[in-house]
Amino acid sequence: MVFMTLPPEAASLSLDEVLRIDREHLWHPYARLGGGPAPLVVREAHGTRLVLADGRELVDAMSSWWAAVHGYRHPALDAAAAAQLRSMSHVMFGGLTHEPAARLGALLVQTTGMDTVFFCDSGSVAVEVAVKTALQYQRAAGSPGRRKLLTPRGGYYGDTFTPMSLCDPVGGMHSQWTGVLAEQVFAPEPPRTSGPAWDEEVRRIAAEHSHELAAVIVEPVVQGAGGMRMYDPRCLVTLREVADEHGLLLIFDEIATGFGRTGELFAAEHGAGVRPDIMCVGKALTGGYLTLAAVLGRRGIAEAINETGAGALLHGPTFMANPLACGVAVASVELLLASDWRGEVARIEQALARGLGPLRQAEGVRDVRVLGAIGVVQLDRPVDVARATATAVRHGVWLRPFRDLVYTMPPYIASDSDLELVCAAIRAVTAEEGSSVG
Question: What is the reported pTM?
Answer without folding.
Answer: 0.95
